[in-house]
Amino acid sequence: MTLEKLSESLCHGGSQQVWRHQSSATGTPMTFAVFRPEHRTTEKLPVLWWLSGLTCTHENAMIKCEYKAACAEHGIVFICPDTSPRGEDVPDDEAYDFGKGAGFYVNATQEPWARNFQMRTYIEDELPQVVAGAFDVDMDRQGISGHSMGGHGALTVSLRNPGRFRSTSAFAPIVSPLNCPWGDKALTGYLGDNRDTWRQYDSVALIEDGARLPEVLIDQGRADEWLEPQLKTHLFADACRRAGMEPTIRMQEGYDHSYFFVSTFIADHVAWHAERLKA
Amino acid sequence: MTLEKLSESLCHGGSQQVWRHQSSATGTPMTFAVFRPEHRTTEKLPVLWWLSGLTCTHENAMIKCEYKAACAEHGIVFICPDTSPRGEDVPDDEAYDFGKGAGFYVNATQEPWARNFQMRTYIEDELPQVVAGAFDVDMDRQGISGHSMGGHGALTVSLRNPGRFRSTSAFAPIVSPLNCPWGDKALTGYLGDNRDTWRQYDSVALIEDGARLPEVLIDQGRADEWLEPQLKTHLFADACRRAGMEPTIRMQEGYDHSYFFVSTFIADHVAWHAERLKA
């Protein structure tokens, strides 16, 4: 496996890097960003995965999310994968919410998507192996977070892999693709009409089907235009209550869906993850 | 004068806004970003001007610079103007370092640039009037900073307007357009071959010609690829020494020219400005 460094810049005392590698899961080159705090070379650092939202590449969070100072302070490696396969040979859709930039962290089963859109395998299996092999990381201390479609990704990846992540958080997550237009469109396209197959990609359904997380931190802006039509935080809160889970859901007055919201609270989240990753 | 709000988002407890207005200086609509910390409506806040570098619009610093938390903490309004006039009727050059995105904060005298490229008047006269009229700002407490071409802008605007700014800083500034290829190309194009007319736009020449600043803070990355061929920080240091000025010039080991560098030290600069603006 060849891993190619595309760029690196010193930032907040650590190194913000961009890497590319050939993915066997997607059959394409995949690019990801990684922030590596300064550390002793004998030291293995905890890892915080960041899954991004619709339209994003590896770059959006890297330049907008303001995680670097906090990750430098707490000594946490922060990884931003891309949100879909890329390239001229990869099928696409002209809409912003399907195809490239909108992989929804699923393994597609429908044509023409099945060949490349294997983002679940990429995020759950392949990229962790790449990261573990290339960087000074302690894979026994992983956390996961994300924004919007990436919040959906963080919750569902963590719910499906009990014990892998010591900490799980999300910003403005799509909590139930089964119950919103974004999810309906994307999962119909990638997975087909049998909605039973969608449940593994729906945090509410996963909890209904028995998955549990010991704790979850969610920030959600009350002025988020997508809160009512798409995100529906209350569905997650309800499912947790019925399951006896007690997530921390903070409804943030006045905040919208943008990275201006995420960047406001990311240092809080990094500190929250750090407490659990470094305990 | 009509001022139109294009967007606003709550961020770090303040409001990150984008505004557009018709500029009489440039003859075009001009767009700027402003971060307005939460404050009592009876309170007028100090202002920190941020002049951006080559290729930037009002947006680059707004999303990359990480100034918002610090400005919210210190109660400082942070303004990011555009770097040139824009629009289909505005002349341009295909190069990144001349024409749109590269106004160099001068009043052009050469055709076809003279009609629109009046960025000195825009930044020194027009935009301050717009800002003073529209926002809760205390124009007796202004600071100025900027990056690269915008560092050149900050230094020269402040040197030409003694007493207007209580604080002046810069990141990786072009200190002497008279002595670097970027400056040579741009000022020849905008001002013509008589290099005497360039001196008002050259921080080193302004100091040689008698301008003074009580203090200046400069951060410059040692790994900046433009340090030797274009930025030439030592020319500014030498001019200051000959003039009896004592700037604080911090050569930052390992840092490059990007916003990863700027974002690392911007909170330092905001705090430094705040000390002077709130004294």
TrEMBL record, chains A, B:
Protein's name according to its UniProt entry: S-formylglutathione hydrolase
Entry function: Serine hydrolase involved in the detoxification of formaldehyde.
EC annotation from Swiss-Prot or TrEMBL: 3.1.2.12
Active-site residues, Swiss-Prot/TrEMBL: 148 (charge relay system), 224 (charge relay system), 257 (charge relay system)
Keyword terms: Hydrolase, Serine esterase
Biological process (GO), any one: formaldehyde catabolic process
GO annotations of cellular component type: cytosol
Keyword Zinc: no
